[in-house]
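Board notes, transcribed. Complex of a protein with S-adenosylmethionine.
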Amino acid sequence: MINAREYWDQRHQALDDLRSGGDRGISEGENYAFYIHRLSAVLRFLHEHFYGKRPLHILDAGCGKGFFSEGLVRSGYEVDGIDSSEAAIRIAREQTVGEFHCVPLETFEAKRLYDAVICIDVLFHILDDQVWEASLKNLINSVSINGLIIVTDVAGPERLSLGNYIIHRPREQYLECFGERGFTLQRSVPFRLGVNPNKFLVFAASTQGEDSK
Ligand SMILES: C[S@@+](CC[C@H](N)C(=O)[O-])C[C@H]1O[C@@H](n2cnc3c(N)ncnc32)[C@H](O)[C@@H]1O
């Protein structure tokens, strides 16, 4: 098993701003489009859940160099970010207004409750199942009762390991972990960009059923 913290720290130092946290197999320009596409989706989910309510305080969990944090701050939200990579957090602090802390998800204890937590392309990079579960639990504990948690993964019928740094967990595993803590899946929305298989999984503590728009 790779040392994930070292892997990400080196990658964040070696690659440019977008390829280090995005897709290293495509150009900076293509990554920019990839980020904007996903940022737009996140803004839409927030708007549809909160009906434009401001201010909202958002936790960007596994923020990397902070592209999503910055986009959310520019859109008028207050954002805190955490990531286990020192190199990424240093750059996020330089580039974005907000509180950024170098801390792993699995030991994170929120000092406040957030209106929304986003965790974009992070959980499938956590290889150990216990660490994955502890991380999800900490994210869920960080959000207010009327809040929203947006994570991304393939969430297909089966567990899927790719290379030495990706494990896509099945949808059932997400439903179980969130369900035990009173959260239900509101929406499951594929990225719909190229061949990327990931989806946004939008969870809330609510009685509403899943909407697969
Ligand atoms: C693919 S990058 C995505 C970064 C950011 N969300 C984005 O989309 O630009 C994955 C990030 O997860 C972070 N990460 C991996 N495991 C983590 C953990 N256990 N706790 C906190 N961050 C972690 C890495 O340092 C890296 O910045």
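Residues 208-213 have pLDDT under 50 and may be disordered. Residues 4, 8, 21, 62-64, 67-68, 83-85, 88, 104-106, 120-122, 125-126, 135 surround S-adenosylmethionine (CB under 6 Å).
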